[in-house]
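Reminder to self: tokens first, then the designed residues, so the page reads top to bottom the way the pipeline ran.
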């Protein structure tokens, strides 16, 4: 038996690990986030969600909805409310790019997302998004509506593709 050709093995491995976008129901994306996200639970809803699939395996999801901030909710802006992967190479930047292309194809003018200030934003930069601002970290809990903080309250960075 002859050993396999290394170039042929590399080509097959490349095809198997190549990322593909696929539609995914919100309920399925929410389950993926619940199982794999390191510090957030799934959001309450979405406009659309996209899956990243490699070798017929779900390796990530992006959930896109209306902006959380009422100041950004102008009818022409969407927000990536959750992005979650299992660590597959390039899956984050792949999903950020897919989300932006889908938002623009639907007629939206811009799409944004927030990251923790402690996160480098490498995937966003790779997908062509730009840093546009910083928000202070704070609790959602107020005296008139007390809430338990289930997320990090450190400062956040606002990124946008337009």
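Designed residues (162 positions):
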């Amino acid at each position: 038996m002859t050993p396999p050709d290394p170039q042929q093995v590399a080509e097959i491995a490349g095809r198997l690990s190549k990322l593909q976008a696929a539609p995914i129901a919100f309920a399925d994306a929410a389950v993926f986030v619940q199982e794999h996200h390191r510090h957030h639970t799934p959001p309450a809803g979405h406009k659309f969600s996209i899956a990243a699939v490699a070798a017929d395996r779900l390796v990530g999801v992006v959930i896109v909805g209306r902006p959380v901030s009422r100041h950004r909710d102008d009818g022409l802006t969407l927000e990536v409310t959750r992005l979650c992967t299992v660590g597959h190479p390039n899956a984050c930047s792949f999903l950020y790019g897919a989300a932006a292309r889908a938002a623009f194809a639907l007629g939206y003018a811009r799409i944004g997302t927030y990251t923790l200030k402690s996160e480098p934003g490498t995937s966003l930069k790779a997908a062509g998004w730009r840093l546009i601002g910083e928000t202070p970290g704070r609790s959602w809990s107020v005296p008139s509506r007390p809430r338990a903080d289930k997320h990090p309250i450190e400062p956040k960075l606002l990124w946008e593709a337009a």
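The helical segments are 6-17, 26-36, 91-105, 122-126.
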